[in-house]
Amino acid sequence: MVSYTIRRILQMIPVLLGATFILFAAVFALGDPSAGRCGQRPCPPGYIAKFRAEYHLDQPLLVQYGYYLGKLFRGDLGTSFYGNPVAHELAIRYPTTIKLTVIAILCEVIIGVAAGVLAGIRKGRFLDNLVLISTLLVISIPVFVIGNLAQLVFGVKLEWFPPTAGQGSLYELLLPGFVLGALSVAYISRLTRNSVVENLRTDYVRTARAKGLSNARVISVHTLRNSLIPVVTFIGTDIGSLMGGAIVTERIFNVNGIGNFIFRSINQKDGQSVVGAVLILVVVYLVMNLIVDLLYGVLDPRISND
Amino acid sequence: MRGRSRAMAAAAGIIAVTLTAAACGGGGSSSSGNSGNTANEITVRGCTPQNPLVGGNTAEVCGGNMLDLITRKLVHYNVDTAAPELDLATAIDTKDNQHFDVKIQSGQKFSDGTPITAKSFVDAWNYTAYGPNGQQGSYFFEPIEGYAATQCTDDECKAKPKAETLSGLKVKSDTEFTITTSEKVSNLPVRLGYAAFSPQPEAFFSNPDSYKTKPISSGPYQASSINDTDYVFTKNPNYQGKWAGKTDKIDFRIYNDPSAAYTDVVANNLDVTDIIPPDQLVGDQWKSDLDGRNGTKPQGVIQAFGFSPIDSQLKNVNLRHAISMAVDRATIVKQIYNNTRTPADSFVSPVVQGYKAGACGQYCEYNPTEAKALYAKSPGYKGTLTFAYNQDGGHGPMATAVCNSIKNTLGIDCQPKSEPDFKTLRDQLNKRELKGIFRSGWQMDYPSIENFLAPIYAKGAASNDTAYDNPKFDAKLAQAAAAPTEEEANTLYQEAEQYLVQDMPAVPEWYDEAAYGWSNRVENVKTNAFGVIDYASITVKSS
């Protein structure tokens, strides 16, 4: 287990190096960020010279990358075009994104698992079909439609929630969190349903029933625990993607999180900010994957990592 | 069995509600909506400035809107007429349009308590102009004597410029300084209302970086807190000018997407937005969403398309006139912009002094018959005529419509060519790599007819993307700059404009109008000639 973990962590290093380089090259390919910073006019030469020198934009790609790596090894994520350290920009936005992710995951787990279990128990009946059809609906609608619709209905018309979440309070984040989690709710409920249906047919469930255990105990202890293994895997990877994949939702609800920051930085061709933000996302994703793989072994001793 | 699973469902429901309630409770203290908020404070849409709020280093709207509140200039542009009125200056005198004597009010102070003197202006201008300081507003000082000596001689700015200060600026006393320009500039006083000409206190020069979090103000408001979600401005107690703010606090909430700000204004969760998203303009949706709380006003922006200087087929003047007359401006404005634009009849925006209605004459009017006749007289255009535009500005439908109009009238194969963003388009224009025609928008820096001619069409001017070069035009500009009165200058500028009509380096399309909306708790919302909301004059309804 320990050696497995260490091996996995060591494997992350080349992945991170490769990721930074690809990102760096991609942003570099976007072109000269100093063009277009001064409105319809070309910028004054003095401004361009200072700007380029500050961010090493006058150097070839590999040299720029070298500068960046050098800083990175010293724990410096670089400087945004506004002049603030990228690490600072990320630090003030991460709490909001984490809050949003937690709300989304809670929505997923509570609604998704409950709906899945109910559908599984009543396989083929009305409730099962209801869950099936409603999740199909959610999966097939793009998130920007759900987001804008929810904003219009619950934010503007019904006024249950604030339409946007610029300040980042938990109450404001409920609606975007729910929208963000909506797609995964659909997946989780389907995963749970199928696995519950399968497990209900297994021998140990029949034994449990034969022993005369109550139905609630059979389902909550014997069935659900085994049914949740695929769900835990899914949630693990979902945390990784939610932390960075919220660009659309964050934009619609004006959530001042990482997604919005990445979007703005790409628009400004602010290379160091983009690379810094995405780098952190890559790390989160890798770590979450590792945790999920380790959890596998814990949840199901048959899957060993040694 | 049934009963039991129903009980489970109920239990799951209860857990869900409890958790949700717990989540709500956690953030309960922060204020969200504005409903019921009667304090004399407003929230307005903001976007993150590219640079710290320094007057000489801001050329974009996000920072510019905020700078308006925290800078006080020598002249102030009238919100309704755009006419320059004396603000900090008590007099700007000149006998020859080349030597200007500026007297400023005494006893005025910055928000940090230090006095605003003639030196505050001269130092700030020298700082902004000096090449190695890398300030975006540097080019505003080009007319001032000694500008060239303060600029970097090479692209990388390795060698220090010859001079650190502009020789044309001299402090005479605490309240008086002189400006000498290298050529005659009759409209210099009109220019002085731009933020790049605002004064800076001494504290700025010792630590420009402090402006990231705490810019020092000379205007009606001062920054009270700057963070990633809000730029908050409160009244500047040291401001003694005529245009003091009506509200105590203005909070610029940062939005990356104007649609979100629009939604907030509709829901009265934000007080003012200065952008209406294009999809809301369709069918005047926004006017019903914001019934009784919306407005439009012409602003000093002209949209045009330029002829590529490297496309030899486009040199013929008959062809250029034919293309211009083939564009059905009125229909495009109606169908694409829902009449939030006005068809252009001149190279100059109607909001400025010196605009002459119909200056472009028949050549800016849609006339398919005449266009075909002129096209027949020209050598024609072979191959595909591309219309380059930047995709990020929502110009796609417009480019397609213009191309279709040209195609249907003249039979030229016109195709829109999208560049991913404004920077890419700008980059290609700078390098003179584009063929065909290209989109070109111009937002004025100061309300003068000159600003729509000289920076875009004078030989070698920074924004002369069409590489227009007509000595007669340049001579008229010089003559106008030396004219003794504003009227005479404007007449001469109008004569210069006629050369543009003859040669058609670019085709005027239409003028922009500012469209904006506000919440039900504020009133007196309007924009100035620049399309910027006059934030200081907004009031909160008393009820």
UniProtKB/TrEMBL annotation, chain A:
Subcellular location field: Cell membrane
Keywords: Cell membrane, Membrane, Transmembrane, Transmembrane helix, Transport
Cross-referenced Pfam families: BPD_transp_1, BPD_transp_1_N
Coiled-coil regions listed: none
Domain called ABC transmembrane type-1: residue spans: 94-296
InterPro entries membership: BPD_transp_1_N (IPR045621), MetI-like (IPR000515), MetI-like_sf (IPR035906)
Regions crossing the membrane: 12-31, 98-118, 130-150, 170-188, 274-299
Gene3D superfamilies registered for this protein in UniProt: MetI-like (1.10.3720.10)
Similarity annotation: Belongs to the binding-protein-dependent transport system permease family.
Name under which the protein is recorded: Oligopeptide transport system permease protein
Species: Microlunatus kandeliicorticis
Automatic annotation (TrEMBL), chain B:
A Pfam family annotated for this UniProt entry: SBP_bac_5
GO terms assigned for molecular function: peptide transmembrane transporter activity
Signal peptide: 1-23
Entry's Gene Ontology BP terms: peptide transport
Name of the protein: Oligopeptide transport system substrate-binding protein
Domain of life according to the entry: Bacteria
Keywords (A to Z) from UniProt: Signal
